[in-house]
Amino acid sequence: MNKTTDEADLAARIRGMLDQGTAEISQKASLRLYEARCDALRHQGAAVAALSLAGIGHTLGSSFHRHYRGILALVALAVGAMGVQVWQNEQEAAALAEIDSELLGDEVPPSAYTDQGFLEWLQQISESDEESLPE
């Protein structure tokens, strides 16, 4: 048996059970059920305009919500960009603080780094180290 046959059998059994109870329904209730069924059949083919949430009178597809969803996306993008900028600034500040702490903890006084003779000596040392490296 395939799926459509199973569904048809199930529908027939449900219809049969419902038909058994209709003999006991009053004429007034039967008429109201018939009207409700006709109303449901009229609305069955109606296309749904947009998604909506139960209990909320607005649809999600309305231009009102589309407008605010666009603004919300831009706000989220701006907040994300600001977050990245703050994080990068903190990383840079941490790196500079690490350099400062290394300079302060070094045996060479900080004034030596501004001395032109010391800078030339460092340049000569680094050039001699580069020349001694194997190629």
Give structural notes:
The chain is mainly α. It has two domains: 1-46; 62-135, no CATH class. Helix content is 72%, strand content 0%. It has four helices and no strands.
Give descriptors for this structure:
4 helices, mainly alpha, 135 residues
Label the overall shape.
rod-shaped
Quaternary class: single chain
Q: What average pLDDT do the residues reach?
A: 79
Residues in helices, as a percent range: over 70%
The figure for the number of domains is: 2
Strand content: under 5%
Task: State the order of secondary-structure elements, H for helix, E for strand.
Answer: HHHH
Output the radius of gyration.
Answer: 40 Å
Please mark out the parts with pLDDT under 50 across 5 or more consecutive residues, or reply none: none
* Distance between the amino and carboxyl termini: 78 Å
Q: Sheet bearing the most strands, described? A: none
Q: So how many helices?
A: 4
Global structural class: mainly alpha
* SS elements, strand count: 0
What's the layout of helices and strands?
Layout: H1 3-21, H2 27-44, H3 63-105, H4 116-132
